[in-house]
Amino acid sequence: MSDAILQLDKVRRSYKTAEAPLEVLRGADLTLRPGEMVGLIAPSGAGKSTLLHIAGLLENPTEGKVLVGGQDCSRLDDGGRTAVRRTTIGFVYQFHQLLPEFSALENVILPQMIAGVSRSKAKVRATELLSAVGLGKRLDHRPAKLSGGEQQRVAIVRAIANQPKLLLADEPTGNLDPTTAEGVFKTLQDLVRNAGLAALIATHNLELAGRMDRVVTLKDGILVAA
Ligand code: ADP
Ligand code: MG
């Protein structure tokens, strides 16, 4: 177990509602090891985003443990979670969440500088990464001037710019037409494979999920093999 990058141990998460609390996760277990690419498939409302947010240290579970690189992160405060997230985890959202006022290049430079990399080094790496995913001629474009597929490529590159060990993606192709989705998935897969990352990718696309190492689903708040 010690080589696990991500370990979820009986993770529970409930939300307060006007009526009884809504129990979304009811004891979810998962172990992700380096190089593993795992698909997460479940209907809308099943708790995929909740699970990814907890795995990505964007929020804490109500109960249970979240270990990232062997470190128990389940009771860290915001600052502690942010510190682990910055160095270890990359996150790709369904809607790119790029900074609209900044170019593609700046969107990839900034998170590196926040992590302490010099501007000149961050620029070299951002240029290389964006060029490698076919965006070498789009470096100075703002997100609004890019296509949906290009925006997601920038978002993926941004997520891996700080060389995380774990990549989490929440329906990264959910907003794209099938052909574009295929291309973006291929980009994601190549980057994950080349970097030897562990990745957990929520998707509605069964065909893409079938090309991952294994697929899990959420059933009554518990993760089971799909
Ligand atoms: P999925 O990503 O699989 O569609 P979510 O994790 O977004 O599922 O949501 C799971 C359930 O939890 C849904 O019923 C949703 O309405 C509810 N939910 C999610 N976030 C909150 C929140 N912050 N407060 C209350 N309920 C929430
Ligand atoms: Mg969701």
Q: What's a concise summary of this model?
A:
35% of the residues lie in helices and 25% in strands.
What's the helix and strand layout?
Layout lengths: L5 E10 L6 E11 L4 E4 L7 H8 L7 E6 L2 E2 L5 H11 E4 L11 H11 L4 H14 L15 H13 L5 E5 L7 H18 L2 E5 L3 H4 L4 E6 L2 E4 L1
Parallel strand pairs: 3-8, 3-9, 6-7, 7-8
Antiparallel strand pairs: 1-2, 1-4, 4-5, 9-10
Bound molecules: adenosine-5'-diphosphate (ADP) and magnesium ion (MG).
The site of adenosine-5'-diphosphate has 11 residues, from strand 2 and helix 1.
Summarize the main sheet.
Answer: 6 strands, mixed
Mean pLDDT: 95
- In the predicted model, the low-confidence regions spanning at least 5 consecutive residues are none
Helix content: 25-40%
* Alpha carbon gap, first and last residue: 22 Å
Number of strands: 10
- What form results from the Cα inertia axes? globular
Strand order in the sheet with the most strands = 6-7-8-3-9-10
How many H/I helices?
7
Structural class: alpha/beta
State the oligomer.
Answer: single chain
Strand content: 25-35%
Q: Which molecules other than protein and nucleic acid are bound? A: adenosine-5'-diphosphate, magnesium ion
Work out the radius of gyration: 17 Å
Succession of helices and strands = EEEHEEHEHHHEHEHEE
Task: Give a structural overview.
The protein is 35% helix and 25% strand. It contains seven helices and ten strands. It is globular, with a radius of gyration of 17 Å. The chain has a six-stranded mixed beta sheet with strand order 6-7-8-3-9-10, sandwiched between helices. A four-stranded antiparallel beta sheet has the order 2-1-4-5, with helices on one face. By secondary structure, it is of the alpha/beta class. Bound molecules: adenosine-5'-diphosphate and magnesium ion (MG).
